[in-house]
Amino acid sequence: QAQLVQSGGGLAQPGGSLSLSCVASGIPFSDFFMNWYRQAPGKEREWVAVISRSGGTVDYADSVKGRFTISKDNARNTGYLQMNNLKPEDTAVYFCYALGPYGRQYWGKGTAVTVSH
Asked: Of 38, 51, 52, 70, which shows the fewest CB atoms inside 10 Å?
């Protein structure tokens, strides 16, 4: 059964760092683009970052560009989101999302990130 299992997140102070991981099972991870989305309380889910199947191409939402880094280790079936210089407005539940061939798509269950003093 295909699934994405997330870990990481938690509480950080403004200016701090956190990292998220997303481990895929049951899918050929190297055939999938991986995205990170987030949803803040009372707001719609928003796209954060994407990485290509090979990991060679990345893109970011303007709100996180220069602070977040998305990466992917196909040998370990794992995607990552490194978050630096965190701001209170980064507080949200973060979701990984894998999109592959033939419209196959999978969501992680989400992990909470709170940025506060």
From this structure: 52
